[in-house]
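Review form for a predicted model. The reviewer records the input and the model, then writes brief findings.
Reviewer: anonymous (R2)
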Amino acid sequence: MTQTKSHTVEKIGGTSMSRTAELLDSLFIGDLSGDALYNRIFVVSAYGGITNLLLEDKKTGEPGVYGLFVNADDNDHGWMSALSRVGQAMQKAHSDILKHKADLQAADDFVRDRIDGARNCLIDLHRLCSYGHFRLGQHMNIIRELLSGLGEAHSAFVTAQLLNRHGVAARFVDLSGWRDEGEYSLEDRIVDGLRDIDLKSELPIVTGYAQCVEGLMKEFDRGYSEVTFSKIASLTGAGEAIIHKEFHLSSADPNLVGEDAVVKLGHTNYDVADQLSNMGMEAIHPSAAKMLRQANIPLRVTNAFEPQDPGTLIDDRPAEYARVEMVTGVQVHALELFEQDMVGVKGYDSAILDVLKRHNLRIVSKSTNANTITHYVDAPLKAVRSAESDLTQLYPGSRVSVRPMGISAVIGRELAGLKVTLKGLSALDEHGIDVLGLLQGSRSVDVQFAVHRDDLDSSIKALHEALVTPKSEAEPKLVA
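Model under review:
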């Protein structure tokens, strides 16, 4: 690959990808022309909702093709109907974007080939596993990998078609390993895919999913596209990595606290990005952020539909002054184990963690005292109940309970001296919100307030109103 020192690697999320036609005017082309169109690598996600249909709904857990296939018996072919629905959803997505008949035909053929290929593969695998020597459970990660790559391949193909139609020399770069008989590491897969591309005169449109021996889904699950994006940036020595979203990285969700109330961050660091990820509001996957940090590549988060706005720069620089940068929150379940005999006895904590890990419960926060350990976990209730049952059996003399709750978090690079805890408690009390727990570390980067789940949104609004400096009084913007 012919590269330049000034090239960027840019990722577009699924919701924004569904508005690809608008992205032509705001991001892909806009007022750019000639050489200015190039020196960029775009890594794309599947169109909004497609990966949910292929795997499972990220919010509700409703099974997609993957869930239906791995749980199907010999006479259950519901996954086939689900796969057909994916094909229909893909065709609907690109029919809203492509207007030229030849492009539509090419996209329809592409979808048909991928969907039919996946269907035949799963049928053959189901038949193979009907023999005693083969177990479906041994192939679950491979199935998940196969299905997840369909969405990104489709969106990347369609985007390249659209750009070519508008006179841009775009190249579809398929890292999904479709019908590939070789085995590649992630690095080798990327290097091979970009090998003969001249960034000065071509615009690579790269799949967010990359098939590799490491197995991205196994390690990163739905965060795989950001890992691919970061790996490409570090391997190619990008001057900057950019994530395009449909909104700015702001002090709170504008839909919750109001567009007039939020303040664009403008500049923050990777430490804050990690705290956001912990609260389920990822600016970038932590593993992806680690790659960029190690390669000394700054990350920029922009609004894809406001190309003139520089967005928010994320790097390793500390804050120049203390301020609250964001207030956010997440719904959790408080999994509490009370055991009178716990005092002075070692091993409870590690045993509980083993159970939580076995049931894949993501820990948001944790509190302990002499005889009680509480983990605030972000996971489906069914999985939490299973963990509760295991803990009850492990410690029959204990009292294990599960409560739905919410955690509101106040986050900033430097919170020292702002009296966030005092002001936060006062603000919540003024709004009649009970605080069920207070969670604060020693590093002055976040303070968490545990509240009743029904009070979560209200608590975020109250904390934002009390702790975030209004736009009209904001400090001068930090220089990026």
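Findings: Confidence is low (pLDDT under 50) at residues 476-480.
Further findings: The chain has two domains: 8-246, 326-473.
Recommendation: see findings above.
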